[in-house]
Structure formats: structure tokens, C-alpha cells
Amino acid sequence: MPTHFSSKLSHDYSQLLDNADDYNVSIQVGEGSNVKEFRAHSNILRARSPYFMRAFSSDWAVKKDNIIIFNKPNITPMVFAMMLKYIYAGTLDLDKQSGSDILGLLIASDELLLDELITYCQNHLIEEKSNWLRLNIVQVLQTVIRHDRCKKLQDHCLEYICQDPQTFFSSKNFQSLDRDILYGLLSRDDLQFEEIEIWEHLIKWGTTQTSTANDKVFNDVTKWSDKQFDALKKSVEPFIPLIRFFEFSSKDFYYKVRPYKKILPRNIYEDVMSHHLAGTEPKTPNLTPRMGRWKIDSNIIKSRHAAILANWINRSGEKFGVTTKVPYEFTLLYRGSLHGFKDEVFRGYVNNQGSAIVVIKVSRVDDSNYAVYDNANNGAQFGQSDLVVKNMIGTCNIHSYADSILDTNSFIIEEIEAFKIVEKIDSSI
């Protein structure tokens, strides 16, 4: 097995950099008053960087008195000094460097095609500079969003925003957000935000891009001209396919989307209108719902509905939503379409499981109906006769409850699910 003397080799090459009296490259970096000349050896730079291999070729190199003259005004002297230390000695100490300088080193490494350094800088920022990243997340994203090799840092920042989008979307930085960053955010399925709020913030962002400080009419959409609608349409058009329009309630669609009808493709608008007015199935491509902070295995409800149920269960007064941490696990016990709609099957899966919630989707009725506790006498029974489930038939006759659960005496069950409710030991999960 060969013996590696890398430590001594690193030291010797470092000395070569510090005492470059036989240099054949003069590199001037920085701009303005922050400019510095570095002397180096072309063979070492070419061996370590594909960028320099090409830049110092006979086709590209500019020489004066047999010295290659090279200028990099977009790299600061501090960053370039770190790069040369890495290129010559294979050493790098980022512990005392600012987040801004490490970000600059990352971008310079991307330009000079130093893949190992790109990976290292991204990992260091994520693992050691998390607070700085959080405070400067827009600056970081604006810097790396168009650098394909910085994908890990891009994803990390976008994931962080997705976990708490309310704070980010409500910040003053959002209105001036780069469209590539916004596109990256709206493309994500893990953006933990109500879809109607995403739409409202997109409209605000779009109007900011197209309005002026004196354009007061933008505050009242009913007074907009066709020119203003056209400007907004041009601004937000690339983002429209990313909006889950079928996730909107009929009320939200009417009051918050319909006024902007002119910016929507006709086929999408008509399809969504038909869905809300006539209950038709979507014809246009329908994106899957975004995932909440916590997932629930259900064919009936989504994270936002489960958050409502959690609020009913919780008695402390704390309110939960899709973007908050919920202290309950919803574990699927039974699903009619999976296990069968027979009463005895329901009881077999649900009885003696502790606290449970039963969720019923009523056939040909828009709103789901939620129930909290199970009774073993029927498939599911609530009150003496207030809600009784027998196989796929349900009946409602007010008796024990103050109000009627449904406005109908009987209904057909399209789907029924039961969930075991378990309080989490660690509510941060």
C-alpha cells in the first residue's frame, strides 16, 4: 500500500505560493479601491482548474514580457486569496470568514469550475452559517439562483422558506423578489401555504412589477384599464400554471380570482368556473395539492382540514394551521374504499383503538362532514340517532345534539375514514 505524504506536500506548495519569485502569471482582482495583484504559476493553476486550463491556452492568454496578464474584477482580493490557498495547498479555513465572503467564494469557485470547493462552501454555509443564511436568505437566493452547481444551497433556502412562508411572503423583500426565485418557490409541492394566499401574494407581486408610485388606481381592481390588466397578465403569466386553482373554495374564487378574470387563460377560467358551479371534473391539467407541514393519509381531507380538526380537539386555545406544528398524529385505521363498507369491518378496525375521528364524504354533496367519536353499535353512531352509519347508508335525525348534523334525513356514503388520534411526545415533529 502506498504511503501518502500529503501534509508535507501541502506545506511545500504553500511556500511556493508565498515566495512566487519564479511566477509567470499576474492576476489582478477586485475593483475600485479594493484591488490587488497576485503572482502565481500557470502550470499549477491549469492543473487545478479547468477554467484556467482554457484561459491560459495559446488562443486566450494575453502576455506581456512572457508574463500572462489576467484580470478578474468580479472577485475580491480576500476571496481570491482563499482560492489560491486552496489551489496550491489544498487547505481552507472558513471558520472566521463572514457568510458574505463564503458566498463570494462559492460563486467564484463556480466560475473557476472548482467542484470540490463548490460542494464544501455550500455545506459550510448550510451547517455552520445557518443564522446568517436565515437573515440574508433573499440576498443568497438572488446570488445563487442562476448557478446550476449551487443547487444544494438553492434547495436549502427554498425549503427553509417553504416551512414558514407567511413570514417571507409578508416581508418587504417579497415585492422585489427575482422572478426566478418566485418561480422556484411556486413550483414546490412542499410550500406550506394556503393556495388562495399564494394567489393573493402573486397578484401583489405582479402589480408591484407593473405599477408606479403614483399609480393609485392599482389599489382598486374595478377601476383598472385593459392596459393595466395586460401588464399584470404579462408579469404573472409564467406562474399561472403553478397555481392550484381547484384548491380554492367557491367563495374565494368568486371574490379573489374572478376580478382578475382577464389575466387568466380562458380555458382555465371556464374549467374552474364549471367545477365550482356545476361540480364538473377538471379538464385542464390539475396539479396535486401542496403538502402541509404534516402529512395525512386521506382521500377526503387535506392538511388544512386536519388542522381544523386539531383545533377542535385542542382545548388550550392555541390555533393550528398548515404552517404550524400540530401536536397530534392522525393515523389511518380504516377506509371504506380500501377495507369495505360493512359495519363489522368498520368495528373490527376501529373499536378499542382509543380516541378516533371519523370523516365521511357524502355522495353528491360538496362539503365533507366531520365526526369525533365512534360508537360500536353500528358502523358509526353519534347521539341516539343524530348520525347513524349502516354500511354505505347514513341517516340523520336530531335527538341528542343541539343542532342537526345534516339538513337531510338520509344520504349515500361515497367514502368514510377513521383516524386514531395520538398526541405527539415532541410537538416539533
UniProtKB/TrEMBL annotation:
CDD domains: BACK, BTB_POZ_ZBTB_KLHL-like. Residues 23-96 form the BTB domain. It comes from the Eukaryota. PANTHER family: BTB DOMAIN-CONTAINING PROTEIN-RELATED (PTHR24410:SF23), HL07962P-RELATED (PTHR24410). This is 3768_t:CDS:1. It comes from Acaulospora morrowiae.
